Amino acid sequence: MSKRVIVIGGGVAGMQTAATLAGLGIHPVIIEKGDRLGGKLLNWHKLFPTFTPAGEVLDTLRRQLKDVEIMTNTEVKRIEQSGVVLNDGRLLVSDAVVVCSGFDIFRAEIKEEYGYGIYDNVYTTVDIERMLNEGKVHTADGHIPERIAFLHCVGSRDEKVGQKHCSRVCCITGVKQAMELKELFPQSEIYNFYMDIRMFGPGYEEMYRQAQEEFNIHFIRGRISEASETIDKRVQIKAEDTLIGRPLKMTVDMLILIVGMKAGASNDRFAENRGIELYPSHFIRPRNQFVDNICSSAGNIFYAGTVTAPKNVGESLNEGVAAALRVSKYLED
Amino acid sequence: MVQFGYNISQPRAINMDKNDMMISQKILRTMPELQTCIACGSCTATCTAGAITSFNFRKVHTLVRRGEYKGAYEEMNKCMLCGKCRLSCPRGINTRGVVMLIKQELGEYR
């Protein structure tokens, strides 16, 4: 009889893990809390740096999951040595568990000074992806924006909201969306306010440069300190242009907050298992960061994707393969 | 009127709503590579003129890009066009060309 492995989470990492396990002759079960597979990518329009539609990646993954057992609308409460306990109290027995529960999106309302949820024309990068998917990007009253500001690092590198870490992928997301909006509205002026621009991936730096040189997107180093609404529902922002050393203010039609990655809320619950440890950021800490970076201290629990740290889609997919291979080796021994 | 030695300070903020961005936009259209400046400061560090005057090329062109033109022409006049900055620029910006372009566009502006 083939061994049974529970994969917690049906995002890209979970799908890739399950597909690889199935290919190795192991019986994976994906437990997904939402009503369908795909995770965060379900709400994403296109992926950096190639502008590949997110749906294309998901379709490829879905095709590999034909014979895989999937439980949707099911949430895991605890992870135990013998399997997982679901929210309804049922125990699902398994030989190993791969945690692919991903991250949560930082809630921009917490940075109250930017007025998200208070002012009409303050958005997050998640809103913009949705608007791009719907093909309806415009200001709250339906106008084409003439001036747009992006703010990097909302909920990243910010001790005031308990998010000391860098979420890594938001820099390039901000650049990608700035380019997409410039393409939609060639007459608009787009400003990206940043603290540091961190272009870690292949082709990212080239894309940043293309955004500057070919798309004429302005980058201003300085974190917006506050936003306020004008009488005509535009947003006035204040920052320091730190490369000049003078304060700067401007009024924009749309302010877009580039929100970071927060550790998944379920990580704390999972860490009740003695084999699962957390970083101070509440992301899960693997057994070590090098040769066992997808392994826990408990022998039969493994990790893939952003449950352990902010990652891009490619890295999460790689970890899915890696975790599946380590599971397979564990089950053989 | 009795003078008490007080006066009203001008606001220091760069006001992007009031600044005339036309010249800045024209400069960027002519030399879009200027947008790729990552403010490393190697141009200013190597600058022959900067060694003996207060000239700071990076700061002046950043101000111009924000629509702050006052004094930029005079500042750019401190440049001796030696071209060392162009050799050091990691983004490959034709910095000497930028100096000439800004002087050309702002010559009338004063």
Short description:
The complex is a heterodimer of chains A (333) and B (110). Chain A is 25% helix and 27% strand.
Overview of the molecule:
The complex is a heterodimer of chains A (333) and B (110). With 333 residues, chain A is an alpha/beta fold. In chain A, a hairpin with a 4-residue loop joins strand 7 and strand 8 (91-93). Helix content of chain A is 25%, strand content 27%. In chain A, strands 5-2-1-9-22 form a five-stranded parallel sheet, with helices on one face. In chain A, strands 11-18-12-13-14 form a five-stranded parallel sheet. In chain A, strands 6-7-8 form a three-stranded antiparallel sheet. Chain A has two domains: 4-102 and 264-332, FAD/NAD(P)-binding domain (3-Layer(bba) Sandwich); 108-261, FAD/NAD(P)-binding domain, CATH 3.50.50.60. Chain A is elongated, with a radius of gyration of 21 Å. Chain B has 110 residues and is mostly helical. Helix content of chain B is 45%, strand content 2%. Chain B has helices spanning 22-30, 42-46, 48-52, 57-65, 72-76, 84-88, 95-106, and one strand spanning 14-15. Chain B has a domain at 22-27 and 37-106. Chain B has seven helices and one strand. The chains are: A alpha/beta (333), B mainly alpha (110). Chain A binds chain B through residues 189, 197, 209, 212-214, 216-221, 238, 241, 243-251, and chain B through 12-17, 21, 28-29, 32-33, 35-36, 38-39, 58-59, 62-63, 65-66, 68, 91. Strand 17 of chain A pairs parallel with strand 1 (14-15) of chain B.
Please supply descriptive tags for the structure shown above.
heterodimer; A: 333 residues; alpha/beta; FAD/NAD(P)-binding domain; five-stranded parallel beta sheet; 7 helices; 22 strands; elongated; B: 110 residues; mainly alpha
